[in-house]
């Protein structure tokens, strides 16, 4: 085990012993403390504050919203070690296994949660632990699609891509045919967050893997799983992307080191024209790039499978050890209600913390006028969530390391790398007693 992973393991084991022994600010000021993984003072953090304020107005229960983005999970570990976990955490669906395995979450009685029957069944999958119990309430969902520079596509005289071959040709045209008309070879086809931080390379690649019928892990029933990273359909998708990096050279420079924060800016600066991403940046790009310059296109079905993209979102987690259990439940019920969902959606403005509503009683078209949101909503019908293994985080990280390597090293053989990844994922599942 590397020193980094050993340190994480030690911190996690400390958190397990201490997690359920108290709550955050609620014990001192009696306010319901709500953490959300957003940049402080961002539009999204302001939307979270609007949601909390509306809850306070409706219930009389005071709240304290804490927005944290950098090292969110590390800071939660620190709070656990200090016996000061917040009352509520709004966090990624993929973090459920990690948080539950550390003893931070208590099971959710779905039947006792008012409004739970109005939430989509697919969204409830992301609130389910490896033991089949619910450990959160769905709050926001999303699928992925291609945000494309429409003006560039029209400039190079091409139609919207319908196949992976079409997509590769469009990326090549964006790279070679000066779509911005400045006379310089300074544009790329794909913009990709291909770094390993928080597993971004795996996160990005997963939508194309799912669109080709591949996967990293498959459920075998009974809470057991098997690694499938060297399945031919998975290998084909990773090979397709390596070809874009290494043969066609259609990916923005520096992509193998970039996270999403940098990649958003690369797209906005006109350094690339095809971004496979979730709907949370749509309003931002409409504002910063121009509404007439961008379009949203479904991810094309891969040559061996599909359709499908990564499905993810955020859950409302009621943290163990809280002294405000009744308030936790009331806030969760408000957040999943039509009123709470609409506040979180924030209409067409930037700062949505509900990307696609999980409450089936909310008409998204009545809340948002931009028809491009519908592409993401339609894609969600075939979205693939991370499987409910005890801890998805190391699986995504190990996958990202392997995929990043074949993108950064053009001499690397993809099949060999994915065979190696499959072995590591099998070992990880054995470690988690999920094999």
TrEMBL record:
> Which CDD domains did the record assign?
PBP2_TMBP_like
Keywords attached to this Swiss-Prot or TrEMBL record, sorted alphabetically, are: Signal, Transport
Keyword check for Signal:
yes
Lineage, top-rank taxon, reads: Bacteria
Family matches, as Pfam families: SBP_bac_1
Q: List the GO molecular function terms.
A: maltose binding
* Name this protein carries in UniProt: Sugar ABC transporter substrate-binding protein
Q: Which organism is it from?
A: Nonomuraea zeae
